[in-house]
Amino acid sequence: MKFTYILLFAFVVLACNPPQRNCTDFKTGRFEFTADINGKKVTTSFFRNDTLEVENFNGKIDSSSIKWVNDCEYILKNLHPVNAAEETPLLIKILTTSDNGYTFEYATVGSAQKARGTAVKID
Hints:
Strand content: over 45%
Number of domains: 1
Number of strands: 8
Low-confidence stretches: none
Largest sheet: 8 strands, antiparallel, barrel
Order of helices and strands: HEEEEEHEEE
CATH topology: Lipocalin
Radius of gyration: 18 Å
Helix content: 10-25%
Oligomer: single chain
Mean pLDDT: 86
Structural class: alpha+beta
CATH superfamily: Uncharacterised protein PF14869 family, DUF4488
CATH class: Mainly Beta
């Protein structure tokens, strides 16, 4: 019985600790993001400062403006959209952070459909 109480206490303590969110550590820098697209792993690298993000995906370079909503959320707006889908801004929310990366949720502004990803800081 004593073991059950100890186990229950440990579970409560671990469950109550919120995830690490040191978002300001990831506002600037060079990052990589790997995604599974149609069963194929693809990697995107990007550089970000406070107001600009420059992405390199399959040799195509694209740039977006950044508007920080708070320390953990920002809106990306493509500076040179080539179609209607690229004109819609993305809302990015950092959910958790680690020493070298972060997990985030993203969606087009106004959409309820969200996706998740993980970015690793390489610089």
